[in-house]
């Protein structure tokens, strides 16, 4: 009886808004989204807390719903054609989705009352200036900021300096053609930076100075042809970087000197560039590299002697879908002692020397061209491919059995 009497007013309020919204749908839709999420969350929390106080909460309940003061709601206002921030927002909001609206500027005062906000999604809106987003914005707990598919063309100095806790910044699919040297000042906690699919034509080493903890950097989809003249320090400041993507740039050669200075790199994506030759030493002395992609290069013709050298942790190498690749030097792969997977399908290779395989003692999986003729020791090649296919079939059967 106590529970019913406590929840009855909430139910009446909900009915009132249901009929009110039918009369004024266009005006109150954003407000309804907020009230609905807040009402449902608080109703669940209040119901559980009341039952617990009456001693009716099952002791064997395998989960626990905290009281409203500790709730962490998500407010979803995606695709509502909003031109301004909804108000008021629940004080305890942790995640705010505003994707797919018509926002072009922000009232920072609306967000100042959200000290616990950790995830803010402003993607697919109409922001053209970073100052319209981050200026005077104080969100001490914000970890993730989504700004993909807006109309940003320039990042000025200290664009996000007030977001000291930020760990993820997504700026993909904008119109960025320039970034000030100190644009990322203050982002010492940043772990992931996505600036792919913009209009950047060069990489400025001064961008990365404040990003000493960065782990993932996505630079693909920009018309970058070469790194600057001081190419050996183009990626300075990224000692902790683990994953780097140059996918679909316009690189005409491997930026080898810059890459060797990124000591902790584990995953490197050079796919879909205009590189014609992988020269001796182009990918060398990257002692933590685990996976390397050299796929979808329409102009790649050859991989020279010791092009890949001293990569002791490399386990997966993909060289696929390169229609003009017709030559791999017999000693192209040197000191790849842990390589397990080699993908060579959909190239123009007609022959492959036996030394190429004999230098890879741990190789388990090979995907060759169907038209490759293996020079010498052809039986070993056939056996290796057969073993690889048998392993895949066995793994598939095990998975199906589960």
**CA-to-CA gap between the ends?**
49 Å
Which range does the strand content fall in? 15-25%
Unreliable runs: 1-8, 18-28, 32-69, 377-398
Please state the average pLDDT score.
Answer: 80
Biggest beta-sheet profile: 13 strands, parallel
CATH architecture of the largest domain: Alpha-Beta Horseshoe
The name of the CATH topology of the largest domain is: Leucine-rich repeat, LRR (right-handed beta-alpha superhelix)
Q: What series of H and E elements makes up the topology?
A: HHEEHEHEEEEEEEHEEEEEEEEEEEHEEH
Top CATH class of the largest domain: Alpha Beta
Rounded to an integer, what's the Rg over CA atoms?
Answer: 28 Å
Number of separate structural domains: 2
The total of helices stands at: 7
Supply the helix-strand structural class: alpha/beta
Fourth CATH level, the homologous superfamily of the largest domain: Ribonuclease Inhibitor
Helix content: 10-25%
Tell me, what's the shape?
elongated
Number of strands: 23
* Quaternary status: single chain
List the helices and strands and how they pair.
Layout: H1 2-23, H2 25-53, E1 74-76, E2 95-97, H3 108-112, E3 119-121, H4 131-134, E4 144-146, E5 154-155, E6 168-170, E7 178-179, E8 192-194, E9 216-218, E10 243-245, H5 256-260, E11 267-269, E12 277-278, E13 283-284, E14 291-293, E15 302-303, E16 308-309, E17 316-318, E18 327-328, E19 333-334, E20 341-343, E21 351-353, H6 354-358, E22 365-367, E23 373-375, H7 378-401
Parallel strand pairs: 1-2, 2-3, 3-4, 4-6, 5-7, 6-8, 8-9, 9-10, 10-11, 11-14, 12-15, 13-16, 14-17, 15-18, 16-19, 17-20, 20-22, 21-23
């Amino acid at each position: 009886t106590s529970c019913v009497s406590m929840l009855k007013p909430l139910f009446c309020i909900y009915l009132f808004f249901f009929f009110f919204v039918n009369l004024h749908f266009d005006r109150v839709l954003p407000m309804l989204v907020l009230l609905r999420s807040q009402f449902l969350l608080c109703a669940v929390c209040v119901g559980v807390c009341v039952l617990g106080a009456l001693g009716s909460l099952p002791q064997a309940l395998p989960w626990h719903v905290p009281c409203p003061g500790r709730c962490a709601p998500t407010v979803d206002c995606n695709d509502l054609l909003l031109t301004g921030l909804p108000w008021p927002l629940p004080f305890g909001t942790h995640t705010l989705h505003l994707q797919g609206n018509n926002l072009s500027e922000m009232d920072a005062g609306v967000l100042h009352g959200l000290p616990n906000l950790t995830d803010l999604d402003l993607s697919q809106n109409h922001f053209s200036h970073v100052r319209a987003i981050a200026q005077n914005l104080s969100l001490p707990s914000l970890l993730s900021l989504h700004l993909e598919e807006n109309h940003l063309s320039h990042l000025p100095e200290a664009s996000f300096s007030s977001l000291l806790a930020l760990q993820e910044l997504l700026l993909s699919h904008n119109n960025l053609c320039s970034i000030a040297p100190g644009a990322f000042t203050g982002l010492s906690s940043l772990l992931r930076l996505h600036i792919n699919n913009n209009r950047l034509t060069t990489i400025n080493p001064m961008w990365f100075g404040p990003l000493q903890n960065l782990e993932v950097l996505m630079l693909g989809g920009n018309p970058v042809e070469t790194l600057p003249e001081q190419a050996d320090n183009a990626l300075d400041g990224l000692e902790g970087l683990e994953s780097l993507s140059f996918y679909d740039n316009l690189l005409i050669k491997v930026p080898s000197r810059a890459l060797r200075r990124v000591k902790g790199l584990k995953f490197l994506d050079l796919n879909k560039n205009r590189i014609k030759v992988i020269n001796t030493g182009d990918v060398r002395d990257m002692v933590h590299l685990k996976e390397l992609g050299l796929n979808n290069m329409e102009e790649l013709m050859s991989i020279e002697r010791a092009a890949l050298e001293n990569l002791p942790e490399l386990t997966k190498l993909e060289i696929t879908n390169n229609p003009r690749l017709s030559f791999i030097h017999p000693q192209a792969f040197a000191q790849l002692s842990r390589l397990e997977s080699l993908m060579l399908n959909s190239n123009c290779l007609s022959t492959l020397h036996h030394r190429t395989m004999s230098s890879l003692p741990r190789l388990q999986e090979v995907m060759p061209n169907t038209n490759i003729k293996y020079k010498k020791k052809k039986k070993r090649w056939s056996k290796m491919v057969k073993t690889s296919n048998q392993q895949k079939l066995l793994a598939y059967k095990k998975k199906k059995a589960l």
